[in-house]
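Second attempt. The first submission of Helicase HerA domain-containing protein had a stray character pasted in from the spreadsheet, which I only caught after the job came back as garbage. Lesson logged: always re-copy from the clean sequence file. Corrected sequence (492 aa) follows.
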Amino acid sequence: MTIGIEMGVTNSGQAATLDLEELLATRLLVQGNSGSGKSHLLRRLMEQSAPWVQQAVIDPEGDFVTLADRFGHLVIDAAEHNEAALQRAADRVRAHRVSVVLNLEGLDADGQMRHAAAFLGGLFDADRDHWSPMLVVVDEAQLFAPAAAGEVSDEARRASLGAMANLMSRGRKRGLAGIIATQRLAKLAKNVAAEASNFLMGRTFLDIDMARAADLLGMERRQAEMFRDLPRGAFVALGPALSRRPLPIRIGTVETESRGTNPWLIPLPQTPAEDAAALVLAAAAAPDPLPRAPRRAPAPPPPDILAQLAQARPAVATPRAEEAPSAEELAERKQRMGDILRQILAEPEASFRNVSVLYQDFLVRLRIHAIGGKPPEIPAFRRMLAVARAGVGEEAAAGEAWREAEARANALPEDTQGVFLLLARTALDRLPCPSDATIAEAYGTRSAGRARRLLSWLEEQGAIVQRPDASGRRIVALVGLGWETAPGEAAG
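This time the job returned cleanly.
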């Protein structure tokens, strides 16, 4: 299923859309000088995608904390927590799928790098069961992945640069989609910028930055001058999630506002020169004695960030109390979810897509079909997926024999359970043993060799026994269940 995020309009007045699923797989780089509209662009992207995907924002200036009021993001003030607490909090963020804004305002450059590195490390090192899709937005990315050493310590720089490199190069397999914004490409580490496949280039003036922007967009050097003429809020887009050719777009409006100030001109007060002298110079000539600072009560201890995460929920209207669903409603809901899962698996290449991607697609379809109730968590979804791939009928799935097969499958690693259940269903129905290609597809691969190695591994674990019949065709028996498949061609 394709989810299009409307970013704005093109020069011809058509809607400029961004493919959210493609973005999750290919990452995004935004460049533009100060005042070009980068933060406005990031805010538009986060507001439009907030209902669809979890988000984390690394915010060095506290500009994006206003997302909390409208979209329920949890704001974490990094200055109130140490690095270890932020790393634990990041792990909880992924476990509970809470969208967050890490506010680094109030920290010096060294502290911002250390705290951002700890938080990104916690997101990256989360348990495999929590690898659901997540947008990780880093504003002013040149602060966290500088191209050259600065005034910060080498330790902080290495930690921050390593965390950013992991996000952009290895984060995709963990469900993390990096979105980085920078004022100058020349200040951003090349190994971080090079991992992005989508680009939005805004107004810039320095020759070296215009030349790099033109190179990234596949434009000729003589066309680089156009970046000087782009108005505020206008960008040139390129990438699989945006456009196959460089496409000028103007970013649309946003619902939330930044806490920063805009350079609007304000008339000066009409103060006579004599009054101005009295206001300024008199105080300098005879300063008033400093008043004694009042005694203040000690500051309260910082809030427990883990307690905040446990209580965090998106800001939604309080639902009315409803009666518990009846058995018929639960059965209907289960059947509808099964129908949706079978529709997903019927799509081309579905067998080879990551479980986290399939789970996100499943959640979106539940919304589209207005299926209420709490959706299954990823472990339960994996079991549903394994049963659906095995092709078990409803009547057989309700039987005692199949429940015993599922219990034996639960003792195996999750990625092998689908193959075991496929063999169990085949043996239960006395069908021919699946071919190597069928087993490979259930395992999520196209390699017949990996399918054969998996069968050998299952046999080593005492889960199955393989044997040939008189004509050399393969038979698989399931240990402890007393079932075996009919003879089947391995290469069929």
